[in-house]
Design brief:
This is TonB-dependent receptor. This protein is mainly β. The chain has three helices and 48 strands.
């Protein structure tokens, strides 16, 4: 009864104090509704505001009649400003203007500036739609122009770190490696609203990985209908009679309740690599020198289907499914010269490998809004099936020829379920959730000696490995809006892991159980529109890839093999950051990372045998600074500059490996876009990236650099997009380094066919405002199934 009286009094008082109002509809330049647009009414020092709904409608109660200033703000940019007169309940419809508004105050002209960078409490935001240079390209190319991110057709990293996870609309992609790159190439930058770089992920996300997260936020659907696009691209290599090709198609449909997105892709990627690995004794005259050539023809096809159904304004259900099939062919040969106390030996070897991989990813979700303040409950289920079957032939040539055949068969199974609750209490927004993950990996490695065309099973080199892992996680966090200038966020995540690895060959097993807490904390301060400060902290974990836990010996010749380590443990890192953004386009981040029990693959020599094994063997401290700047003062030029300078110090606690010398290093990117016409549909691109000498673990890496140039052309009202690049013009992109050990050093060099001519053509048809089903589902564990050693 009391609640009804209070509600009645509230309505009466609201009617009395706000007897006037203004309402209306905001539309864009095509007279379509403009949702999520701020309408601001100002009189003296009093301000009233509202956000338009999905139909572009707004209503603002006012205290009194009179003259007001009405302003429209869209995506942080002021588009409209005018003086209006309100008397009683007024109605006014507004159409957005294209250019920012210019206001004259005492002879001074002020122009609303588009925000390019934004510092949020727990992430750096790059507003892609505000960058002219980032339009008319695919998502991989857009990531390459994002501060702190390096993206190529091979990998994506943050500030030089590898194995970064990528999300779409706050939902992690169920893809990794080449499958991830192929999918991102189906997304056009014109459909991307912003890219968020999360270097210290909050408690909501998995604690796995020390490289952080990248969240690609797509533009919301603004109209009903459908659209599609077809893409084709190819690379031609200098001095090589072959090309790499890729073709794909996407389709989007948006109805009042149902949204569907589908994509198909097929490709044939050629890769060639020449390398040497020179092991030289430091306490004796022994050496092991190997020169190799590898050729890889990565053939793949895949597709995906996503669907969302809006049951009503509060309930949304959906699914994601992705399939990928690849059957790469790998060929190579090497020549080794071995010298030790027993004399000199020349060894030649070659291999011809074929692999068939089928990967299925499926996810389903259900979202329900539980109140009008934005609170939401999300339920998600994920499944990943990864089947691989290889046929690998090897020949080892000394005075005789030893021929062998290996048939590795592996099956990854990953299942997970989670519940996430977002609950808002005024200025405090909370998040909490539970997650369970089950990982199962059955690997069978069959090894045969080939004698007189007969396959004879070698039981000493044949092995079956079973791996089972279960993860339990719970988290809670809160975001505090202290006032208009201060924000704070804190969270705590707990993860408990139980794993077991069984090797049938040597009848050994390893059982490990551990539970860890992962705290996160953030605070940000924004004194005005031109300055933003932040301080972040997070604790992370890096778990080994499944293949690195398998102890079987993978022979590439009678004298060389690689092996896993069932006792390999995860590493942990603590990360601190201080960030500053000036004028929304200049970003500085100071950081400190401390990693404990990190792991890497090391080389071991025993007589005339050499093998590599993954071990935990070092701790590392790294202190650095990231600087990002976007220059757009000139109408004909937009430049993006990124610099990462750091000091690293490594300590090895394993006597089989010596830490690389401590020291300073840096890497930087410079991308220039020269607009050759007024409409900015013809662009000349010129850029470079470079890594100065650096160190990690027991490895010292030499400097590396690459220069590219190209043209970008948008035709037919940006429906036909043509990009032409020349990558690595000077042919300087290569990997070179030294590994340090107590009795020898290993110098290695690797050079691929990085100089190439790349051409891509994309044609879009249908309604460009339709985005289809844009929601992705979190599935962090999927990336552990792949990856290198």
């Amino acid at each position: 009864m009391n609640r009804k009286i209070i509600l009645l009094l509230s309505l009466v008082s609201s009617t009395y104090f706000f007897a006037q109002s203004i309402e209306g509809k905001v539309t864009d330049l095509q007279n379509k509704p403009a949702p999520e647009t701020e309408v601001l009414i100002t009189k003296a020092d009093t301000k009233f505001s509202a956000i338009t709904d999905e139909n572009g409608m707004f209503k603002i109660p006012l205290k009194e009649d009179g003259n007001y200033i009405l302003e429209i703000i869209r995506d942080g940019v002021k588009t409209n400003s005018e003086t209006i007169t309100v008397k009683g309940n007024s109605k006014k419809d507004i159409q957005l203007k294209e250019a920012p508004v210019e206001q004259k105050l005492e002879g001074v002209t002020l122009t609303a500036r588009k925000k390019l960078f934004e510092r949020k409490v727990d992430r750096l935001v790059f507003n892609v739609e505000n960058s002219v240079a980032s339009q008319g390209i695919d998502a991989v190319e857009a990531l390459a122009k994002t501060p702190m991110v390096r993206a190529t057709d091979d990998a994506i990293s943050i500030a030089g770190k590898s194995n970064v996870a990528v999300m779409i609309n706050d939902r992690l992609l169920n893809l990794n490696g080449q499958e991830l790159i192929n999918y991102l190439k189906t997304i056009r930058s014109d459909d991307i609203l912003k890219i968020e770089v999360i270097t210290t992920p909050p408690a909501k996300y998995e604690a796995e990985g020390k490289s952080g997260l990248i969240n690609i936020v797509l533009k919301k659907n603004s109209s009903l209908g459908w659209n599609g696009s077809i893409q084709t691209s190819g690379s031609s290599y200098w001095g090589r009679p072959t090309t790499s090709t890729r073709s794909g198609a996407t389709f989007n449909y948006q109805g009042e309740k149902l949204s569907i997105t589908s994509n198909l892709s097929i490709g044939d990627n050629y890769w060639e690599n020449r390398s040497y690995n020179y092991l030289t004794g430091t306490t004796d005259n022994n050496y092991w020198k190997t020169n190799s050539t590898n050729i890889n023809n990565y053939r793949y096809k895949g597709g995906g289907l996503k669907g969302e159904y809006k049951i009503n304004d509060k309930n949304l259900i959906g699914f994601n499914y992705n399939y990928s099939f690849s059957n790469p062919i790998e060929r190579g040969e090497s020549k080794a010269s071995i010298f030790d106390k027993d004399g000199y030996l020349d060894v030649a070897s070659n291999f011809n490998n074929r692999n068939r991989r089928n990967i299925h990813n499926a996810s389903a979700f259900y979202d329900v809004k539980i109140d009008s303040s934005g609170s939401k409950l999300s339920l998600t289920a994920n499944m990943m099936l990864n089947n691989s079957n290889a046929r690998n032939f090897y020949n080892t040539i000394t005075s005789d020829i030893v021929s062998t055949f290996a048939n590795p068969v592996s099956e990854y199974r990953i299942y997970s379920g989670q519940a996430d609750l977002e609950k808002n209490f005024g200025k405090i927004k909370t998040e909490a959730g539970l997650k369970y993950t089950k990982i199962k990996n059955d690997s069978e490695f069959n090894f045969f000696n080939i004698e007189n065309d007969q396959y004879i099973l070698n039981t000493k080199r044949t092995n079956t490995f079973f791996y089972n892992e279960q993860n339990y996680a719970a988290y809670a966090s809160a975001n505090f809006k202290i006032n208009d200038k201060w924000d704070a966020k804190a969270g705590l995540r707990y993860e408990y892991t139980s794993l077991e690895g069984i090797s049938m060959n040597d009848d050994s097993s390893a059982k490990i159980k551990y539970g860890k807490l992962f705290p996160t904390a953030y605070i940000s301060y924004k004194p005005n529109e031109n300055h933003a400060f932040s301080i972040n902290y997070s604790r992370r974990i890096s778990r080994p890839y499944f293949g690195n836990l398998n102890p079987f010996k993978f022979y590439v010749s009678e004298f060389e093999y690689s092996t896993g380590n069932p006792y390999l443990l995860p590493s942990f890192s603590d990360n601190m950051e201080f960030g500053y953004v000036l004028n929304n386009n200049f970003n500085v981040t100071l950081y400190y990372n401390k990693t404990k029990d990190d792991w890497d693959r090391i080389q071991v020599v025993e007589g005339k045998s050499k093998y590599s094994i993954v071990k935990n063997f070092f701790n590392e401290d790294q202190t650095g600074i990231n600087i990002s700047y976007n220059y757009n003062k000139l109408k004909w030029l937009e430049s993006n500059v990124f610099v990462n300078a750091f000091y690293s110090k490594t300590k090895s606690y394993d006597p089989t490996a010596i830490a690389a010398p401590k020291g300073y290093s840096a890497n930087f990117n410079v991308d220039n876009n020269f607009f050759l016409n007024k409409s900015k549909t013809l662009t000349l691109m010129l850029g470079l990236w470079s890594n100065l000498p650096n160190r990690d673990g027991n490895t010292y890496y030499f400097a590396n650099t690459s220069v590219y140039t190209g043209m970008k052309l948008n035709l037919m009202e940006k429906k036909l997009l043509i990009n032409l690049y020349v990558n690595d013009i000077l042919n300087t992109n290569r990997n070179k380094g030294i590994e340090y050990y107590p009795n020898y050093d290993v110098e290695y060099y690797s050079k691929g066919i990085t100089r190439n001519l790349y051409l891509s053509v994309t044609y879009k048809f249908g309604n460009n405002n339709v985005k289809g089903a844009t929601k992705e589902v979190k599935f962090e564990e999927s990336k552990r199934a792949g990856g290198g050693n």
